Structures are given as structure tokens and as C-alpha cells.
Amino acid sequence: MLSLLSNSLELYTKNKFKVFGGAVPFEEKDTSMLDLLSSTDLVAGAIEHYLTRKDKLEDFTIKEEADVILQWLAHDGIALKKRTTIIRPDGEGIIGANLAFELKDQPKDVTIIPIPM
Predict the structure, then answer these.
(1) Residue 21 lies in a domain
(2) Looking at the predicted structure, is the pLDDT value of residue 57 above 60?
(3) Which residues pair with 94 in a beta bridge?
(4) Burial class (CB in 10 A: 0-12, 13-18, 19+), 46
(5) Which candidate, 20, 25, 26, places its Cα nearest to that of 7?
(6) Spatial separation of the C-alpha atoms in residues 29 and 92, rounded to whole Å
(7) Distance of alpha carbon 74 from its chain centroid, rounded?
């Protein structure tokens, strides 16, 4: 998976990376690192919840917990950009696409500042 991700980076950026690596779980549990890792796990779970249900039900619903995360994915913060990439098998190869989330109703009690990527 690391090799696939490394090779696909050139599709999204002109930057060259001298080092590209990954990590395995820690032998000793570090609470601060587990909290950081759990955020990506929560996002992956919410996206999976949405993607595996949206095509199978006429009137599908999303759990409230997953909906909160999907709303968070719908807009970037000032210092945090979020990108969701889907990679799926397709016949003899694989295909990939970016998944964009948009809020159905904009919140009334916030100021949204558009930040181009």
C-alpha cells in the first residue's frame, strides 16, 4: 500500500519526496499518539458507513456520530486541509478519485472563510 501511495503522489503534487515511509503499531501504548491515530480511524469509519450504505437503500440514514464527522469533512480549517481519496479495483486494474463532501444546509451560527487549495 505504501508503494501504491508513493507512486500515486505524482498525480496530486509536483513536489518530489526523498523519503516516503509508514509505521507499524507501537509496542508501548502512547496515549497522545493513540488519540492522533484514532482521529483517522473515526474518519475512515464514517466514510465507510456512508459509502457502503448510500447505494443500497432508497432512503438511507447515517448515524448521528458519522454525520458529525462527515460535516467536519465538508469544510477546511484555516490550517487543516482534508482530502478523501477512494481507491477501488476496476476490472484488470484500479481506479482512484477524490471524494468531496458538501454541507446540505450551511450552519447559521458560523462565519465560513473560503480557502482555496
Answers:
(1) no
(2) no
(3) 89
(4) buried
(5) 20
(6) 40
(7) 10
Residue 24 lies in a domain: no
Residue 112 located in a structural domain: no
Cα gap 69→7, rounded to integer Å: 29
The predicted structure's pLDDT at residue 25: 66
Count the domains in the chain: 1
CA distance 75 to 109: 15
* Residues of the domain holding 81: 31-107
| 26 pLDDT more than 70 | no
- Among candidates 114, 111, 33, 44, which has minimal Cα distance to 81? 114
3-state helix, strand and coil shares in percent for the chain, rounded to the nearest 5 = 35, 10, 50
H/E stretch holding 89 reads strand 84-90
- How far is residue 95's CA from residue 4's CA, in Å, rounded to a whole number? 12
Task: Report yes or no on 95 lying in a domain.
Answer: yes
CA-CA distances (angstroms) from residue 51 to 5, 30, 43, 97? 21, 31, 12, 13
